[in-house]
Fold this sequence. Notes:
Number of strands: 20
Largest sheet: 12 strands, mixed
Distance between the termini: 71 Å
Mean pLDDT: 87
Oligomer: single chain
Structural class: alpha+beta
Strand content: 35-45%
CATH architecture of the largest domain: Clam
CATH class of the largest domain: Mainly Beta
Strand order of the largest sheet: 7-8-9-10-11-1-2-3-4-5-6-12
Number of domains: 2
Amino acid sequence: xxxxxxxxxxxxxxxxxxxxxxxxxxxxxxxxxxxxxxxxxxxxxxxxxxxxxxxxxxxxxxxxxxxxxxxxxxxxxxxxxxxxxxxxxxxxxxxxxxxxxxxxxxxxxxxxxxxxxxxxxxxxxxxxxxxxxxxxxxxxxxxxxxxxxxxxxxxxxxxxxxxxxxxxxxxxxxxxxxxxxxxxxxxxxxxxxxxxxxxxxxxxxxxxxxxxxxxxxxxxxxxxxxxxxxxxxxxxxxxxxxxxxxxxxxxxxxxxxxxxxxxxxxxxxxxxxxxxxxxxxxxxxxxxxxxxxxxxxxxxxxxxxxxxxxxxxxxxxxxxxxxxxxxxxxxxxxxxxxxxxxxxxxxxxxxxxxxxxxxx
Length: 360
C-alpha cells in the first residue's frame, strides 16, 4: 500500500519541482519548435477537447476527437515516418505513415488497411492532435502577421518548458490565441492550449505526459498482422469515406469577403487562409439531405433562407453551417475557424445563387 501511495503522489511531486528555462525570445522559441520537426522521439500524449459540435453519423470518426479525451502513444522517426496509436477502453486504432503511404489498424475489426498514395484531402485524425504536430501546424497557419510573445515556463512531462503565445492577426478568426510550451533545448513541443474568444479555459489542450528521444525502430514503424487478421488496400479517395460523395459544384471566387484559395481537390472550396479560413463541401442529393436531417436531429439550430433551408451549430473554435438551396439537388456544408455570422452570410450567398450557376 505504501508503494501505491508513493506512485499516486508522483505527478503532484513533479509539478511542485522548480521550473526554469533559458531566457529565450519568442522568435527563438518559435524557430526551435519549427526546427524540431525532424527529431526522432516517442511518448504518451493526451488531448482534451470541448467543442460540443453535433454528433453527425457521417463524421463519426471525427466527433470523438473534438469532445473528450484522446489518448495516444506516439513514435516519430521523421515527418513522413511515424506511428500514432489511439487508445480506448474497447481497443485501439493505429496509424502508420510510411512516406506517401498510410496504414491503419483497427483492433475491433481486426483489419489492417493500406492506403496507397498521398492524401490530398482527408478528415482530421488523432495524429493531428499530438503536441508536436499541432504546434507546428498552428505556427505555420498563423503566418508572419501573427503576434508572438513569451510565456512563463511550465513543467511538462517532467521537464521545464519555454512558453510561446501566438495571437492571430485577423479578428474574424475564432482562435483568440494559442499557447505552446516546448523543450528549450530541442524545441520539441510538449503542451499546446488553444483558446476561443472570450474563454478563460482552452477549448483544446494537448500535452505529452511522457516523452523522450528515440532511436527509430523499423519493427515499431511497420504494421504487423497477427494470425487471423484481415488486410485490404484502398486509394486515398475511397478511404475518405463520406468525402467521396462530394459533388463537383461550381463555387464562387469569393464568399463573405473571403477569396477562394487553390485546392488540390476541386470539389472542396477553401476560403480565407491560415487560422481564418473555412471550407465549403458540396454533397450529392440524398447524402446531403441526410446530413441536414442528422444535424437538426442532433440539436443544430434551424436556418431559413428565402431561397433554401439549413442548420447551424456554433462551438468553441469551429462553426458549422449546412444549407440546401431550393433550386439545387445538392447540400452545402460550410465549416471552419471563422464566426458563425460569417458562415451564415456565405451560406446565404450560396442559397441565393441562380440555377445557371449550379454545376448541373
